[in-house]
């Protein structure tokens, strides 16, 4: 897809990856509808974008009915003006590095809601307002392919998002709408907890700059690539885990002491990507 003059809806716009992605899209000539919870961050981001007057902002919580209704009303105003959205990027996400036994019910529900339920509902709504040809791109995680201690519910949500994207893309075959899935690995953002950064350093895990993820998103949109995993050896581990999960379990078992030590330092930490929602991939050890 040629992104020039296309109307692109981006959730989680003011987070680390979201902001880089917004800047990259603006440079491609896209007109952006930026959505997040933090109005001040959205306004600051808009001022930094190329052709800032071409972009619009909506401060809303898309995990609740009121927020999604506000979004639908907003998009309806564009439709009445003869403008249609060409791309929906479900970038908003959250995760918490903690053992399941230490998690509260509300935090689990919020994590599953934002990472899985919300993009499903937005994708469903998009079928009514996306122009054709159009694209839905869901930002997942390498942890959608590899279950990792301390991220049980996050892994579940991202695995669900992967299969949802795959199923919907097949369901819409021939309709003019594509559904794409991107799985970043650990990504450097200011929201990473010290415990997670320390664990990544101990294990020698590589982390990408947010711009790396943004570049992959742009390439996927322009070339309409169905699915992509970022990073090596993460790509390999995802494949091995599919066919020989016991080998990955053996590898992770060697990391258990470091994982438990880091989790002991992380008990009071809470992280929500810029939904203020940023990306689902902020610092994940692998």
Which properties best describe this structure?
286 residues; alpha/beta; Rossmann fold; seven-stranded parallel sheet; 10 helices; 7 strands; disordered C terminus; Short-chain dehydrogenase; KR_dom; oxidoreductase activity
Structure description:
The protein is an alpha/beta fold. It has one domain (about 5-265): Rossmann fold, CATH 3.40.50.720. It contains 10 helices and 7 strands. The chain has helices at about 15-25, 40-50, 65-80, 105-130, 150-170, 195-205, 210-225, 235-245, 245-255, 255-265; strands at about 5-10, 30-35, 55-60, 85-90, 130-140, 175-185, 225-230. A 7-stranded parallel β-sheet has the order 3-2-1-4-5-6-7, with helices on both faces. The relative contact order is 0.19.
What is this structure's SSE topology?
Blueprint: E1 7-11, H1 16-27, E2 31-36, H2 39-48, E3 56-59, H3 65-80, E4 85-90, H4 105-129, E5 130-139, H5 152-171, E6 177-183, H6 194-203, H7 210-223, E7 227-229, H8 234-243, H9 245-253, H10 256-264
Parallel strand pairs: 1-2, 1-4, 2-3, 4-5, 5-6, 6-7
CATH architecture: 3-Layer(aba) Sandwich
The CATH class is: Alpha Beta
In CATH, the topology is named Rossmann fold
Overall shape: it is: globular
- Domain module tally: 1
Number of strands: 7
Low-confidence stretches: 268-286
* Annotated CATH homologous superfamily: NAD(P)-binding Rossmann-like Domain
In helices, the fraction of residues equals: 40-55%
Quote the beta fraction.
Answer: 5-15%
Spatial separation of the terminal alpha carbons: 33 Å
Q: Tally the helices: what do you get?
A: 10
């Amino acid at each position: 897809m040629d992104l020039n003059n296309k109307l692109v809806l981006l959730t989680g716009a003011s987070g680390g990856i979201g902001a880089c992605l917004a800047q990259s899209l603006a440079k491609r000539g896209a007109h952006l509808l930026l959505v997040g919870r933090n109005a001040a961050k959205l306004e600051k981001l808009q001022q930094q974008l190329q052709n800032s007057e071409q972009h619009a902002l909506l401060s809303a919580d898309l995990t609740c009915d009121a927020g999604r209704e506000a979004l639908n009303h907003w998009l309806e105003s564009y439709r009445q003006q003869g403008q249609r959205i060409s791309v929906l990027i479900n970038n908003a996400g959250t995760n918490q590095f903690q053992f399941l036994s230490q998690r509260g019910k509300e935090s689990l529900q919020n994590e599953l809601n934002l990472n899985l339920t919300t993009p499903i509902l937005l994708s469903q709504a998009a079928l009514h307002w996306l122009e054709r040809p159009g694209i839905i791109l869901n930002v997942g995680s390498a942890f959608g392919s590899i279950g990792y201690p301390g991220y049980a519910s996050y892994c579940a949500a991202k695995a669900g998002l992967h299969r949802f994207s795959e199923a919907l893309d097949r369901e819409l075959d021939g309709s003019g709408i594509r559904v794409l899935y991107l799985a970043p690995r650990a990504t450097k953002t200011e929201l990473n907890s010290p415990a997670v950064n320390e664990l990544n350093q101990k294990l020698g895990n590589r982390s990408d700059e947010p711009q790396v993820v943004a570049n992959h998103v742009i390439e996927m949109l322009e070339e309409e690539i169905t699915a992509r995993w970022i990073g090596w050896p993460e790509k390999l581990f995802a494949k091995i885990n599919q066919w020989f999960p016991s080998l990955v379990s053996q590898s992770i078992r060697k990391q258990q002491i470091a994982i438990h030590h880091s989790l002991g330092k992380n008990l009071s930490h809470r992280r929500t990507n810029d939904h203020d929602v940023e990306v689902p991939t902020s610092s994940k050890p692998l």
